[in-house]
């Protein structure tokens, strides 16, 4: 009996050792989140503020993320703007190009979200080092920044002036307390079709019957397309429409159309998708996404809808 107890204890402790060894992990590069898309979040962050916004954008997009790491790290005294600090000297020197420590592969990405803090009303000089070091030709650059109060406009204009051949969008300034909704709106308003083609229509399968949504030329329709494919049930309302609340917001430019036509596809508010199957006058405001020709009466029940580019 004693031998069995001793043997059992030996096996028990051996298992603990093996389990402990099994938990040993190889060092993980937390700088990059693997994904299958063609979008990269590329950012420089001296204090960690821009990093937090970059990580939230990456999470929303499910995209790769890479930090621009300076060869010489910025210490607290390097950012003391009330002194003759390193950051001040660099920003005042038109030839300053702080070295980048890590190698960055941008070759497989079509769209690059470029994040940085605002220093002296513009982008840090290390961003110019980045543009000097890598070929951004043919890529869409979407800037975002963090700052106490300074808007992103001046830094975007500076980047465009530095290399006029680059495709740089307007971008946005963030603060740490910005909501997920603000970040989602930013992503949707800057959505880029990966093939850079203009999508003028969307296939809609409603209760197994196929229709075509002819799209409006506006920011809302563009963001709508970049949410697809989608599949869901739309509920009945008022005997003239089917609706669903989307899981993210779209940019809006709403107005009162005064008259709704059967087949109109509208956005009510910033996340309620509506398909109207009857015509009527209205006092409500919508942003028009598109129109379905010859849409029949969809009846009083909910409908299954599948949307594809």
Walkthrough of the structure:
By secondary structure, the chain is of the alpha/beta class. It folds into two domains: 39-189, 3-Layer(aba) Sandwich (Rossmann fold); 201-308, Beta Barrel (Cyclophilin). It has helices spanning 2-22, 49-61, 86-91, 125-133, 153-162, 180-189, 219-225, and strands at residues 39-43, 64-67, 111-117, 140-146, 167-168, 172-174, 201-206, 209-215, 230-237, 241-245, 259-260, 264-268, 272-276, 280-281, 287-292, 303-308. Helix 2 crosses helix 6. The protein is elongated and about 70 Å long. Residues 1-7, 9-36 and 193-197 have low confidence and may be disordered.
Summarize the structure.
This protein has 309 residues and is an alpha/beta fold.
Shape call: elongated
Q: What spatial order of strands do you see in the largest sheet?
A: 7-8-15-12-13-10-9-16
CATH T-level fold name of the largest domain: Rossmann fold
SSE order, one letter for each helix or strand: HEHEHEHEHEEHEEHEEEEEEEE
| DSSP strand tally | 16
Low-confidence regions: 1-7, 9-36, 193-197
Give the name of the CATH superfamily of the largest domain: Flavodoxin domain
The CATH architecture term of the largest domain is: 3-Layer(aba) Sandwich
Radius of gyration: 26 Å
The termini sit apart by 72 Å
């Amino acid at each position: 009996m004693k031998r069995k107890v001793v043997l059992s204890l030996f096996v028990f402790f051996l298992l603990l050792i093996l389990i402990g060894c099994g938990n040993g992990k190889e060092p993980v590069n937390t700088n990059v989140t693997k994904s299958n898309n063609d979008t990269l979040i590329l950012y420089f962050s001296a204090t960690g503020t821009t990093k937090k916004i970059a990580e939230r954008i990456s999470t929303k997009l499910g995209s790769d993320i890479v930090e621009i790491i300076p060869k010489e790290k910025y210490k607290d005294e390097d950012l003391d703007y009330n002194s003759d600090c390193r950051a001040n000297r660099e920003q005042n020197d038109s030839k300053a190009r702080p070295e980048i420590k890590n190698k960055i592969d941008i070759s497989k990405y079509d769209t690059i979200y470029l994040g940085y803090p605002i220093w002296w009303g513009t982008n840090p000089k290390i961003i110019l080092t980045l543009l000097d070091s890598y070929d951004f030709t043919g890529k869409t650059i979407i800037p975002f920044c963090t700052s106490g109060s300074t808007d992103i406009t001046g830094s975007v204009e500076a980047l465009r002036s530095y290399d006029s051949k680059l495709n740089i969008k307007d971008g946005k300034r963030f603060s740490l307390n910005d909501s997920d909704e603000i970040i989602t709106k930013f992503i949707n308003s800057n959505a880029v079709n990966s093939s850079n083609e203009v999508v003028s229509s969307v296939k809609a399968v409603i209760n197994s019957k196929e229709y075509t949504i002819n799209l409006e030329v506006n920011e809302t329709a563009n963001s709508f397309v970049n949410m697809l494919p989608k599949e869901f049930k739309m509920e009945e309302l008022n005997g003239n429409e089917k609706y669903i609340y989307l899981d993210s917001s779209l940019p809006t430019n709403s107005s009162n159309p005064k008259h709704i036509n059967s087949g109109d596809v509208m956005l009510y508010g910033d996340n309620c998708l509506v398909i109207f199957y009857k015509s009527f006058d209205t006092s409500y405001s919508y942003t028009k996404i598109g129109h379905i020709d010859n849409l029949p009466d969809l009846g009083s029940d909910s409908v299954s809808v599948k949307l594809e580019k």
